[in-house]
Amino acid sequence: METTGFTKHDHSRCIEQGVAAVDLACKQQGLQLTKIRRRVLEILLARHNALGAYDILEKLRAEGFSAQPPTAYRALEFLVSHGFAHKIEHLNAFVSCVKPDAAHVPVFLICAHCHCVAESCMKPAQNLLGHVAAQSRFQVQETVLEATGLCPNCQETG
Ligand SMILES: [Zn+2]
Ligand SMILES: [Zn+2]
Ligand SMILES: [Zn+2]
Predict the structure, then answer these.
(1) Ligand index nearest the alpha carbon of residue 116
(2) How far is the CA of 6 from the centre of ligand 3 (A)?
(3) What's the CATH code, domain 8-96?
(4) Candidates 3.40.50.150, 1.10.10.60, 3.30.1490.190, 3.30.450.20; CATH matching 105-156
(5) Ligand 3 (ion): which residues have CB within 5 A?
(6) Residue numbers of the chain with a pLDDT score lower than 70
(7) Distance 154 CA to ligand 3 centre (A)
(8) pLDDT tens, 54-92?
(9) In the chain, what's the furthest Cα-to-Cα distance?
(10) How far apart are CA 46 and CA 62, in angstroms?
(11) Half-sphere exposure of residue 48: CA atoms within 13 angstroms, side-chain side
(12) What is the 46 CA–ligand 1 centroid distance (Å)?
């Protein structure tokens, strides 16, 4: 398992690689990465923090996109439904996915202090809940794995 978001890294690569990965996935799946969808993705990729739909809408407006709420919400919905972004239920907010090209169950570690969010990826087969559900012959449609706490940086600054 790897965790992106808490460790120091060259963040410009996150944005570049994130957009490139989604671009490729869209081409492979015959999906349209429209201007607004791409821009919403870039806004999410810009930081490792979760953003509410309203924050995203505000940013689009500030940039001169004459975005009506449904347009921004539909762009978000597109990104989430294809696994390019995830909704953090705990925060009612969105983050870009760190592995948009691989099937995974996202695990979110949410810092209660600086609000950064790290996503770890589990293979569906490694998912503990998946095992429990299988034993009960339960068909899982969606799993939400979120933990709140303090990120390494905030622990250091006490
Ligand atoms: Zn980054
Ligand atoms: Zn993900
Ligand atoms: Zn923190």
Answers:
(1) 3
(2) 8
(3) 1.10.10.10
(4) 3.30.1490.190
(5) 111, 113-114, 151, 154
(6) 1-5, 67, 124-126, 158
(7) 4
(8) 999 999 989 888 767 888 899 999 999 999 999 999 899
(9) 52
(10) 16
(11) 24
(12) 8
